[in-house]
Amino acid sequence: MSVPETAEKIKSMEIRGAGRIARAAAEALRDHALTLKAKDLPAFTAAMEQAAGILADTRPTAVSLPNAVHIVMAGLDRAKDTEDARSGVVRRADGFIRSSHHAVEDIARYGARHIRDGDTILTHCNSEVALACIIEAHRSGKEIEVFATEVRPRNQGHITIRTLNDAGVKTNFIVDSAVRSFIHDIDLVIVGADAVTVNGAVVNKIGTAMVAHTAAEARVNMIVAAETYKFAPRTIIGELIQIEERSPDEVLPAAMAKTLPNVTVRNPAFDVTPPEYIDLIVTEAGAIPPQMAYVIIREYLGWGIEEFQKSLEINHRVEE
Ligand code: RI2
Asked: Radius of gyration (Cα) for the chain, nearest Å?
């Protein structure tokens, strides 16, 4: 798929979910590299950088997206010629997509071990990797039951219940505001993540923080399933995760909003769950307490503080 087409589908959420948008961006960059006609290496690099920028700018919160773009684009500056640059992009994009699928499989196995026979699980939104844990537990023969939320305003819960239904998992569908009413029926909460910050806070679909708070108050454990590329390296240097605020039309029909001049519709798509509400983050590198997020950023993304210090030095030099 072309870069503009992929970008449009990510923006409109036809392609959605933090892992899926990351893979779609890698795929679009690979296809772009394969068809790009450039007169020389600088022209090729400039065109690739432009495409990378377009894709990275589509949705601001899921850090898997800029991380995937970073991984695919890394090393482009060391390419010998256009063909070397082209094959490098293709190799890294394919490598990212492959390892992303493997990560989901590994997390499914690790996460499923936290689910006991007879457990009732609550999940919020539609996370490919959180559902993979649940489905793996079901496949391994554990008797489980799920409560899935509706997920206003985009109803990602509909995708979740379809997936669980098709996998043969006994599922209850509830509105988001019913979580407190059922929390005493729940043994474990499992959600995905759009971003994990250096202090172990988890940015995920709006409502996740409320679910986490409710679970903590009821002493129900909460685990987050997140591939390592959902950890946010730039939070090391104090960068905050931008919370996407989407169109008010998703919440209230424009025709009705027009009749309410004193009402402002707010539509943040994500919220932040503090680390103290999270028992474990299950990654493909193993399960970690949220407080160990820095280690994942450093060891698995390879972007420790040094890389930023280097880039800061370069900036200082330019300023002088
Ligand atoms: P996976 C989604 O965002 C949800 O917040 C979900 O929990 C998260 O991405 C992770 O999804 P959106 O695209 O990568 O629905 O686990 O706004 O599928």
From this structure: 21
In the structure, what pLDDT confidence band is assigned to residue 306 with cuts at 50, 70 and 90?
Answer: low
Query: How many beta carbons lie within 10 A of that of residue 41, not counting itself?
Result: 18
Q: Which of 11, 20, 127, 159 to mutate to test the pocket of ligand 1 (most atoms within 8 A of CB)?
A: 127
Tokens of 310: 């280097």
- 171 and 148 in contact (C-beta within 8 Å)? yes
pLDDT in tens, 136-166: 999 999 999 999 999 999 999 999 999 999 9
Between the alpha carbon of residue 126 and those of residues 35, 110, 208, the distances in Å are: 34, 19, 12
185 a catalytic residue: no
For the four alpha carbons of 90, 96, 97 and 99, in that order, the dihedral sign comes to positive
Residue type for position 76: L
State pLDDT tens for residues 92-138.
Answer: 999 999 999 999 999 999 999 999 999 999 999 999 999 999 999 99
Q: Answer yes or no: pTM beyond 0.90.
A: yes
Of 281, 271, 296, the residue nearest 222 (C-alpha)? 281
Q: How far is the CA of 320 from the centre of ligand 1 (A)?
A: 43
Contact by Cβ (8 Å): 232, 202: no
Exactly one of 194, 249, 271, 279 is catalytic; which is it?
194
Helices 82-112 and 64-73 meet at what angle, rounded to 10? 140
Contact 205, 139 (CB under 8 A): no
Between the CA of 205 and the centroid of ligand 1 the distance, in Å, is: 7
- Cα distance between residue 160 and residue 187, in whole Å: 19
List pLDDT tens digits, range 178-198: 999 999 999 999 999 999 999
- Confidence at residue 303, expressed as pLDDT on a 0 to 100 scale: 62
